Amino acid sequence: MNDKVRAHLGTLMQRYPQLAVCRADIAEAYELLAECFGHGGKLLIAGNGGSAADSEHIVGELMKGFKSPRKLPQAYADKLIAIHPELGETLAGNLQGALPAIALDGHPALSTAYQNDCEPLLCFAQQVNGYGSAGDVFLGISTSGNSKNVLYAAVTAKAKGMKVIGLTGQKESRLGEMADVCIRVPETETYMVQELHLPVYHCLCLMLEDKFFGLR
Fold first, then answer.
1. What is the band of 159 on the pLDDT scale with cuts at 50, 70, 90?
2. Residues 75 and 145 occupy one common structural domain
3. pLDDT at 216 over 60
4. Which residue of 45, 73, 109, 152 pairs with 125 in a disulfide if CB–CB is 3.0 to 4.6 A?
5. Domain shared by 89 and 196, yes or no
6. pLDDT class for 215, splitting at 50, 70, 90?
7. Residue 135 is part of a domain; what is its CATH number?
8. 23 and 77 share a domain?
9. Quick one: average pLDDT of 99-109?
10. Are residues 155 and 77 in the same domain?
């Protein structure tokens, strides 16, 4: 664990002391994600209700600048300008570095078609089946850890050779049993679990941004 990771975790624990019990699991989840993105992989995220909103929130933090500006590498910026000087100049000046992440709660045409034609609870699993590849990561967010559509997606991810991270509440769960690492925040009431999920994934996103786009 490098000094920047320790610093981010330290800040999280200072602001949310109750998350100290999750420190090792958060660090392990970070390592899985860093390895995934470092090898050109992607993150697939699924959850229901407020956890679906959290899935979209995480994608927003990873796919564009969160705290850092994430300027494009100069060689890539030069290519954009070489292809089309006018349009390329705008692209080079405004595109930001991204860590590829997809929230599976969207895609209404696909989701409604699959739910109508097939098995509704397998909608996330179908997307993992289509988008996922060995070396990718599936992040399942479930306050109970027992949401069936998330569990089906986790099983599919494992079969594809993906790593699985769970983000749940305090109780033991089926997602926790099958995940490579499960971050179990120390609450059991749904809204209280969700209140602690946000600082956890913000910390993960900050650490990942620092690794891939921070100053060297």
1. very high
2. no
3. no
4. 152
5. no
6. low
7. 3.40.50.10490
8. no
9. 95
10. no
> Cβ of 172: how many Cβ atoms within 10 Å?
12
Number of domains in the chain: 2
Asked if residue 89 and residue 20 are part of one domain, the reply reads no
Phi, psi (degrees; rounded to nearest 5) at 138: -110, 125
Query: Does residue 30 share a domain with residue 85?
Result: no
177/158 Cα distance (integer angstroms):
12
Structure tokens at 197: 């999920």
Domain housing 77: 69-97
pLDDT in tens, 24-52: 999 999 999 999 999 999 999 999 999 99
| Torsion 51-140-45-76 (CA) sign | positive
The DSSP result for 24-69, as a single string, is: HHHHHHHHHHHHHHHTT--EEEE-STHHHHHHHHHHHHHSS-SSS-
104 closest CA partner among 120, 127, 121: 127
Do 104 and 86 lie in a common domain? Answer: no
The two counts, helices (H) then strands (E), for the chain are 10, 5
Alpha-carbon gap, residue 77 to 96, rounded angstroms: 11
User: Tell me: the pLDDT tens digits for 48-94?
Assistant: 999 999 999 999 999 999 998 899 999 999 999 999 999 999 999 99
The residue assigned the tokens 């209280």 is 192
Please say whether the beta carbons of 96 and 77 come within 8 A: no
d(CA 195, CA 186): 11
Same domain, 47 and 78: no
Mean pLDDT, all residues of the chain:
96
CA separation for the pair 101, 20 (Å, rounded): 27
CB 96 within 8 A of CB 64: yes
